[in-house]
Specification:
The strands form two sheets. Strands 2, 4, 5, 6, 9, 10 and 11 form a seven-stranded mixed sheet that branches. The protein is mainly beta. A hairpin with a 4-residue loop joins β7 and β8.
């Protein structure tokens, strides 16, 4: 089992930056592709970004491409999401997750059904 805990959320003005962290415990996440999702009030949980096992390939939703950067530090069993140029529409609860699929294509990693381990989420609020 993998336990995931997000941190780093908060309130920020539009145009600002935040860095989210996802700390894993229970077992190493080296063998897992990892992803970030978010859920705004009244909306479904949506894909934000993902990073494959080796960290060599990253994927982003069009809405965050060029503003967010996903990375991982396997030696620390941790994943990050650097968010810049934040917009009010980025307001949501952000979740990190570990994929249980043996595949690491975009179509697989953007699908939340392919993730077997989830954190509890961290709130990000962007004021206009």
């Amino acid at each position: 089992q993998v336990q995931l805990v997000e941190s780093g959320g908060g309130l920020v003005q539009a145009g600002g930056s935040l860095r989210l962290s996802c700390a894993a415990s229970g077992r190493s996440v080296t063998s897992y592709a990892l992803g970030w999702f978010r859920q705004a009030p009244g909306k479904e949980r949506e894909f934000v970004a993902a990073i494959i096992r080796s960290g060599g390939i990253t994927y982003y939703a069009d809405s965050v491409k060029g503003r967010f950067t996903i990375s991982r530090a396997d030696a620390r069993n941790t994943m990050f999401l650097q968010m810049r140029s934040l917009k009010p529409e980025d307001t949501a609860v952000y979740y990190c997750a570990a994929s249980i699929s043996p595949y690491s294509t975009y179509s697989v990693l953007e699908n939340r059904e392919n993730y077997g381990f989830w954190g509890q989420g961290t709130q990000v609020t962007v004021s206009s």
